[in-house]
Amino acid sequence: WPVFYKMDTLEVLKAETQPGMGGEHDVPGLYAHVMLQAYELTKEKRFLGEAEKAAKTLEGYGFDLFYQANNTAFSSGALLRLYKLTDNKLYLELSYLCLANVFRNIQLWDCNYGFGKNLPTFFALFPLSNAPYTAVYEEQEVFCAFHDYLKHAADIDILPEVHLLITEYIRYLVDRAVYYYPAMLPKEMLEEKTKTGEVDPNLWIALEDLHDGWEKSGAVGQEVYGAGNAFGILPRHYFKIPGDEFMLYVDYPVANFKTRGRSASFKILGNELIQCRMVMVKVGDKKLPEITVSDKGSDKVLKGKALKPGNIEYRVGGGREIKLLWK
Questions:
Q1: Would you call the peptide bond into 242 cis, given omega within 30 degrees of 0 as the criterion?
Q2: Rounded to 5 degrees, what angle do the CA atoms 116, 179, 236 make?
Q3: Which of 24, 94, 34 is nearest to 64 (CA)?
Q4: Domain ends where: 191, 221, 236?
Q5: Does the pLDDT value for residue 299 go beyond 80?
Q6: What mean pLDDT comes out for the span 101-117?
Q7: Contact 246, 311 (CB under 8 A)
Q8: pTM confidence score
Q9: Average predicted confidence (pLDDT) for the chain
């Protein structure tokens, strides 16, 4: 898979990322993803066969498989679905390999110097293996791909480490993503002379690039295609309670959210070793109703902590089933 080619003639314009390094090694996984979508729509076995053929070409690359973060993340999900369809463990192992490539490209430290003092950077994901910046588009797509991965993994046993890493990446992205908007950053850390595009600090369109603390950000302007950042996060982590003036926020991914009358139930995904943050968020001027939060597994009533302006916070371990009752 070359880096650049003409779509009408397939003429290769740039074959390799670097001399001797080959092209975009993770694209066969993305191709398998598309073929599986075609198979799901048509039920034609030729698409499934094509997906398998593409997936097998990912063998042997090790940590050189990663080209672009979102490609690799979607590849991991496609391979998981292939495993479920075929029961061929090779695809599950390749799925883990894709995830390992993604997490190898993570920034597991917080930049607390220079401009880095103005925003959280822990667990940030670099879009390319040699990128000196993070980018909201790739992070947002990986975030969505990881949510999808957990949905498809709900009925099979996957490594607990996979649950832990995916859910932790998601929670930190939820916390960090707002800082891609230039309005959240001091103007002195924004690039005045952009290489391409422009930066309008008052425009709520995400910056293309956030750099190391010693460098200004926004060197290539703002991402129009990154404008959907909030729309990807909010529906997955904020849950409106029908007929009541409060919302539920969970910074871990949630499954099977249901409401019935004055009750709600859901499962918090992730690993029980780490606690996530759950908040009852007041909407409007009314106080929160009297809410009982319990762990369905033990019937233990959880105690919350009062927050301003009238919200209540809970700490809950991953993998727990939660029930809410309110008056």
A1: no
A2: 135
A3: 24
A4: 236
A5: no
A6: 96
A7: no
A8: 0.94
A9: 94
